[in-house]
Each structure stands twice: as structure tokens, then as C-alpha cells.
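USER:
Try writing one entry.

ASSISTANT:
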Amino acid sequence: MLPAELIELILLRLPARSLVKFKRVCKSWKTLISSSDFIKNQVQLSIMAEPAISELHLVYSNLPRLINNEIGFIPIQSLFENLSFGTEVVYFPVGGYYVNTTGTCNGFLCLTDLPCFDFKVRLLNPCIGLASEWLTLHSEYDQQRPISNFGFGYDHVNDKFKILTVVESSTRIYTFGAYSWITVQDIPLHPLEWDGTFVTGTGTLNWLATRIASSITYPVNQTAIVVLSFNLGNESYGQIALPNIEGGLIHCT
């Protein structure tokens, strides 16, 4: 039998598509391949072998559609180099009923699926063909209490991807890998957008928000608008004041 160290070295040099299958071989392989250290090392080796993996990609989709949902991706560099010849779009089937892209982070897309009964999400990295299973966030029994706000991002402190949902001001966090939900502090303001924008440098999800519900009707007084920020590391809310522009209004776009 091969030593564990040699098995790890062999697995590190395999493509991600093969590793997804090999996680089913045994529990020890599944634990190894799922570990954050293994994933980081495998990505680094893949980039050394195929530098194109680390390039920026333009994501194309035919979503949302009721059938044949697909995600396509195009290396940005190839657009500049082959404009006169056209660029091939590589498609990746994503399944689901009514799928939409609701966030991106560290090469992963967060896809949401909203059929008649359940609200589901999955993570997808189309460049390496890695995808999670669909996760039900909201069941048919919760339809009277819809998700009012949503966010997807990366917690660099704990090295985990996380999803945030708000239902009737209650904030819940799902951590990928830990397979767990926790409830944190209630959302303190009224976001003007459904999905939050993730900022990599700060590790935060952000929404334009208002302190008073009545101000969501337009025109909006700029003094009522702030940036509501949620830190995925310490799982708490904060507020950032918008710049004071003399003689003008800040418009929500």
C-alpha cells in the first residue's frame, strides 16, 4: 500500500474534474480532497501547468431559462488577441429549473434556482469544471416568509465560502464545508437591493440602504442613504456614510 504522503502528491497532480470523482473512493480521500490546504495546493500546481486557469474570464450565460441552462466562459485575453476571428465560448451545463447568477467570488459563481417550491443555490467554477450539489435555502413551507436579502462571499479569516439570507429582518449564515446554519444579529437597516455586492479586499457584503422605510420611494434624500456592510469574518453589520456631494443627489443604480 502506498504511503499517505505519496497518495497526496499523486492526487495533487490530477485535474479537478477527476478529483470530484475520486472523492467517492473512500472517506480518507474525500476528507483529503475537500480540505482547504489540498485545494489551495492543487490550484497552484494547476496554474503552473496551465497558466490560462489564472486569467480573468468573461462569463456568458443563457440564464434564466426553463430548460437547457448553461454557463459559458471566455478568457479575457483571447478577446483582445482574436477579435477578428471570433472567440469560442466553452459551455458548462448547470441544471435546475429557473437558474440565475447572483454572485461571483474567487473564480466561483453562485447560482440560484427558484422553481415553484424551493429556493436553491449551488457553487460553480466553470474554468475547472467544479460544482457543488444544489442546496435548499428556503423550502415550500417558508413561502409566506420570503428571503428579502441575499449575499454570497468568501470569509478569508476562516477560509470559507458563505451565504447570507435575511427573512423578516433575521439574518442567517450558511458556511460551505461546515454544512451549518447560524443566526446572527438582525439586519439594522432597509437595503435597497436584494443581493449584496461582495468586496474582496474587505471581505464584506454591501448594500445601499436607508434608515427609514418610507425613503425607498423616489426621489430619495441623500442623507437617508448609507452603505450597509456585513463582515463575513466576524459576522456583524456596519455602516459607511456616503460622500457629501454639495448641490447634488446620489442616485441608486
Summary: The mean pLDDT is 75.
